[in-house]
């Protein structure tokens, strides 16, 4: 695999030089400049953090709670506002690379009139890929994310954001046509529990759509690096596991599923470059 030799240096270097583009239309929070500068320092020290999770690195100067009282289950408190802003402005390179794949996945499995449950809605990067006429229920325990997600909602869809976790949605059985899960199963405490909850929420024949970064093949230098660095990754990147075989968790819950494996090509994503994308039928 290209980049296995010396990929740690190239990864850390690429992240250290990158800053959020700020190209979105939502006004920046007042701390955005501080976040960008501190982000560069963090990537110098913790360059192993993945594209989706490195923005969650705790900032000592901004680590106080924002008063919402919302915490992710089983995880340490962090600044909800800072994390939300980082996810809003720090994911452009990842989302740009994934746009074509997301468009294909959602257009192939989501239809007008569907009821969609999205686990870990975040700032709403998936919303623009849903067809007109769908109703989206987004679970997002970090309320600082909500205004960003609302700003990205196309007018042709309905959106309700709920301050709930993926482990316990609170809905009755078989309420949804589609459950969406992107870049979530790497960081939950129990992916099988989350997947069982997703299956419970699906109607008979409903589909789980997923995109996740996963462990590299056993015996590779990349897998060795993931294994060695994973404890630090979990500590500083919101419990993100670089070496989690998420496809095995999906197999444990769903009998009817399919997925494709692919590798990210953007510079700086080597440690989390192995990805899977696919669907599972309830």
From TrEMBL:
InterPro entries: Methyltransf_11, SAM-dependent_MTases_sf, Thiol_S-MT
Gene3D superfamilies for this protein: Vaccinia Virus protein VP39 (3.40.50.150)
UniProt lineage: Eukaryota, Rhodophyta, Stylonematophyceae, Stylonematales, Stylonemataceae
Pfam families: Methyltransf_11
One function term, GO molecular function aspect: S-adenosylmethionine-dependent methyltransferase activity
Source organism superkingdom: Eukaryota
Organism: Rhodosorus marinus
Domain Methyltransferase type, first and last residues per copy: 117-210
Alphabetized SUPFAM superfamilies for the sequence: S-adenosyl-L-methionine-dependent methyltransferases
Protein name: Methyltransferase type 11 domain-containing protein
